[in-house]
Amino acid sequence: MPLLVMKFGGTSVGDLARIANAAQKVKREVERGYDVIVIVSAMSGKTNELVGWVEETSHLYDAREYDAVVASGENVTAGLMALRLQELDVPARSWQGWQVPINTTSAHSAARFVSIPRENLDAKFTEGFKVAVVAGFQGVSPEGRITTLGRGGSDTTAVAFAAAFGAERCDIYTDVDGVYTTDPRISPKARKLDRIAYEEMLELASLGAKVLQTRSVELAMRYKVRLRVLSSFEDTDENSGTLVCGEEEIMESKVVSGVAYSRDEAKLTLMSVEDRPGIAAAIFGPLASAGVNVDMIVQNISEKDIEGRSMAVTDMTFSCPVNQVARAQKALTDASANGTITYDDLIVDTDVAKVSVVGIGMRSHAGVAAQMFSALSAENINIKVIGTSEIKISVLIDRKYMELAVQALHDAFGLDKAA
Ligand code: ADP
Ligand code: ASP
Ligand code: MG
After folding, report:
1. Is 136's C-beta closer than 6 angstroms to any atom of ligand 2?
2. Lesser CB count within 10 Å: N end or C end of the chain?
3. Ligand sitting nearest the alpha carbon of 175
4. To the nearest whole percent, how much of the chain has pLDDT over 70?
5. Is the minimum distance from the CB of 176 to ligand 1 under 6 angstroms?
């Protein structure tokens, strides 16, 4: 039997009527002759509520119990979806992570897949069940405890099942009708893309476009899963939405395919650090050990006069998520207290955002950076840090200009939809 994976995100299962609507879409695919693995998220807002309860109960919570609580939202939706399908005369059964089993590492709250054995689900399909409804976002550790995969993780569950079961396609049903050139919620001129290359989607996701979890795109690229993003609120057919696929299948050639943003960034600068071999390791080692996800890094060498002698010093600037600033500050002040680094001052700016342009066309086009900088300068937006890779350019700017920057770049690179 051909098999499809259909994933429904939080808004798409946000209440009983929406679960019923999603179930109708599943039923239609069953009627077309597919066996279906349905992956469900928690009802919208539920995971945030559960996370809030954990944090309120225990400030430095045990991550195993965080996972036990937070994974529960998906269990409810899985059971309700199976019941709704049964009401529609579709033979369906729900599965929690441990029942499949979805084997993961024991990195609680950020676990990774180890294996998804097919036997249990295959046996049910052979018995005549047409649909397996699997709770997204969760798995089971080698110690037999519930794990979760990081926020947005149900996308990754869906792609992992599509790869493990050789699904014809993995359809991600969400509250937008595809992947856009930028977040349609902040730019009314955003344009829906019919196709996007894995690599571009990977960059957009990792630079902040939360329409797909980054890891899901990585897995889809590795296992060549045909991944589609489409609306759960519209009538859809096999041509709807956006297909995330290999570069060779993309017809449209634009230098820049999309603009992404990440709102909650922070910039930290260590002033006048001694410039010597090993200094970067002495700074970023303790930050890594403290679990700080350092993103962009800039180093500026200058001279400093110490007791009449000129000495090379460096200002080291880096960015990280704003909610990791306290941890970063502590790691750096501890390193200074135990003498591994010395610096004059630590300057923290928590009001910055990152805006990035992405496109595989950049590989063969010069001048994209210059074009980006001049579009920002035309809006009088000051750039604080710049970072580049083969197919993206990112800048750190004041958060209050973020929307303006996204729109200016969207326009400058010809992405605006026709008026
Ligand atoms: P779900 O609950 O279905 O997983 P998410 O909220 O995680 O949905 O992801 C969908 C949201 O992603 C959209 O509502 C949209 O605001 C946002 N988004 C950000 N960037 C993009 C983009 N480039 N294209 C489409 N949606 C985007
Ligand atoms: N419910 C989880 C979250 O909100 C996982 C998901 O929806 O993908 O992060
Ligand atoms: Mg999501």
Report:
1. yes
2. C
3. 1
4. 100
5. yes
**H-helix segments, 39-91:** 46-57, 63-70, 72-87
The model's pTM is 0.93
Residue numbers of the domain that contains 196: 3-251
Distance of alpha carbon 170 from alpha carbon 192, whole angstroms: 19
Q: What φ, ψ does residue 128 adopt, rounded to 5°?
A: 115, -5
- 178 touches ligand 2 (CB under 6 Å): no
- Which residue from 7, 186, 211 has its CB within 8 A of the most atoms of ligand 1, so it is best to mutate? 211
pLDDT tens digits, one per residue of 207-246 = 999 999 999 999 999 999 999 999 999 998 888 999 999 9
SS (H, E, C) 105-116: CCCCCCCCEEEC
Q: Which ligand is nearest to the CA of 176?
A: 1
CATH number assigned to the domain comprising residue 228: 3.40.1160.10
Residues 147 and 238 in one domain: yes
Angle between helices 16-31 and 72-87 (to 10 degrees): 60
Q: How many residues comprise the chain? A: 419
Ligand 2 mean position, distance from CA 367 (Å): 39
Asked whether residue 417 is assigned to any structural domain, the reply reads no
Map tokens 């990112």 to a residue. 394
Nearest alpha carbon to residue 260 among 191, 322, 210, 324: 210
- Distance in angstroms (rounded) separating the CA atoms of residues 411 and 418: 11
Q: 177 C-alpha vs ligand 1 centroid, how far in Å?
A: 10
Alpha-carbon distances of 220 from 8, 87, 162, 215, 223, rounded to whole Å:
17, 33, 9, 9, 5
18 and 129, same domain (yes or no): yes
Please work out whether the CB of residue 138 comes within 6 Å of at least one atom of ligand 2: no
Distance in Å, CA 210 to ligand 1 centroid: 5
Q: Tell which atom from ligand 1 comes closest to the C-alpha of 10.
A: 2
Whether residue 101 is preceded by a cis peptide bond, meaning omega within 30 degrees of 0, is: yes
Q: Which of 7, 172, 210 to mutate to test the pocket of ligand 1 (most atoms within 8 A of CB)?
A: 210
Mode of pairing for the β-strands spanning 227-231 and 169-174: parallel
* 419 located within any domain: no
